[in-house]
């Protein structure tokens, strides 16, 4: 049969070397290229997308085991993606069951999603880059979303192999100019077709009104004000056009050091305390310049630290926390655990999984981030202190920690619209350098650090531990992480609002050219049909109960747990000299000099943290109040849906959370039907969860990694290494046990 090449897998004690045996001769393949072409899937191009190179008679291998099985088709490269076009049986008759992306297909890889490219030469795997003297017989592509693609080029014409391999290497690895990104080609071509979702209520924070609304929502407008001093980016291109500062801060102070050394408001707590951030002043060697900076910071500090009424605690994230290098190094090791080439490699590494996971240090970094956020939450909630986050540019770890604190303390940030607004406020308008941190231009690997992915992983820990508290699902977080590499949305492809505006043509409105209208990632209708979007919404979310007028009277907007927390009064004003010394600490921080001690001793911080943490976890959970994660070792888990979804061996057939969710949705649907009968509502609009079960039940073979992994093939038995395994029985017994499990799963 044309299109399939198979070699039988060996059991035995040692996995056989991969080898390819075709049922058709090479000359038959070339003689029937026309027939192959007729079976291929049509290449769908987006507006502005151009085909660059292609190769026919390419074999896409099935990532299953040491057997070399696959599908013949055409491999193409455009200025947007790499795509394989073939007659894939697994994709047929499965439209309803698949969680399909309208922009990117199952066999598509955006150029920005390519992580590493390898070639196989005489069964040896080598990384590919630059100009090649010899071309591989097999191409392996590792993706940033952790997919792994294997393409066989043995029966592809030599000229086509050179063209497609060179094209893929060049267009995924060569440094680019910002204006040459597909984002701009797409925006220009689709200028009249950019329909937006009318139900997208995400606050973009690109107007003064948006900031005033957020101040009013958090009751922060008593002590803080939104300013337009940077309108048109006259003061600083790093800051947004509008932001919030203390009311007592003169606006002219923002001009002194181009926005550096200014306390910028992030969020206000119910008790009036605020979370602030500040970027460090440029380092100066001249004594006169240092004295000017010191006097300036002394005045700034007095606007936010006025004991005994207001006390501020500084958190220097540049010197007393993680480094960006720590994050990048840990993730580089961590992601290798999931870039699995075949089943044999999976089972080989499975024996030492926990030691490899621990050595990567990724889960420990997540734990440290959550712990730091809880410490800051304790200062705001229990000690009634303002917290000032310090960082060199206040655009990496400041974004991460301030966002986590708000997710824990503000239930609005746990709704989908609230979470999207939070990302807009703290990350997009906060100046996080997505272009550099995601290395979209391929100009410097040193700048690439997955800070935003780390944030999503931290949020996933909270979602996993407290599902009813969140309006969105882990699937939402997963597709949001995938959207980092989709260059049709402007959200994650600029370093600052200024960079976006100037490249869209918005900064100078007097120009004749019409400003580009770039899409935002928050319009989920661009990527998913309404039915698929239902999997982004959590049907178990507990909505906040509506209070009648009688209940509202005399009520203060506080977290429900506040009365049970070990609250401490603001500390009485100590000797005058203490605050002089405290001010000096802040100044030294901002001038880039290390300090030998914190304002509070580490022992006192640990005691306060432990008391606060234990007290909260000893009480029932209020899903609309303060929300703290468990951070003990076993409680920090691997985000399985994102990291394991492409590995068939890691799936649990008919198990995992999806099985529980399916049953719960069925029960919810039944309850809703009964309510409709009682209320005699024959034509009810129907709540969103009522549609869910049909989507989940549409496939009889759900896996634990649904909706990304649906098992369409029979489970293959593992190739177990002999070393380190004893008393496991022979392979026939193992296969029988697995078959029994599959039968139970199908039931």
UniProtKB/TrEMBL annotation:
Coiled-coil spans in chain: 657-684
**Compartment annotation:** Cytoplasm, Myofibril, Sarcomere; Sarcoplasmic reticulum
Q: Which Gene3D superfamilies match?
A: Pleckstrin-homology domain (PH domain)/Phosphotyrosine-binding domain (PTB) (2.30.29.30)
Q: Does the keyword Coiled coil apply?
A: yes
Q: What does this protein do?
A: Acts as an adapter for the myotubularin-related phosphatases. Regulates phosphatase MTM1 protein stability and possibly its intracellular location. By stabilizing MTM1 protein levels, required for skeletal muscle maintenance but not for myogenesis.
Its source organism is Nyctereutes procyonoides
Question: Known PROSITE patterns for this protein?
Answer: PPASE_MYOTUBULARIN (PS51339)
Q: Does the keyword Cytoplasm apply?
A: yes
Gene Ontology biological process terms from the UniProt entry: phosphatidylinositol dephosphorylation
Limits of the Myotubularin phosphatase domain: 205-643
Alphabetically ordered keywords of this record: Coiled coil, Cytoplasm, Sarcoplasmic reticulum
Query: SUPFAM superfamilies this protein is in?
Result: (Phosphotyrosine protein) phosphatases II (SSF52799), PH domain-like (SSF50729)
Q: Which family does it belong to?
A: Belongs to the protein-tyrosine phosphatase family. Non-receptor class myotubularin subfamily.
Q: What is this protein called?
A: Myotubularin-related protein 12
Describe its assembly: Heterodimer with lipid phosphatase MTM1. Heterodimer with lipid phosphatase MTMR2.
Record InterPro entries: MTMR12-like_C (IPR022587), MTMR12_PTP (IPR030576), Myotubularin (IPR030564), Myotubularin-like_Pase_dom (IPR010569), PH-like_dom_sf (IPR011993), Prot-tyrosine_phosphatase-like (IPR029021)
Q: Which domain of life is it from?
A: Eukaryota
- A GO CC term attached to the entry: sarcomere
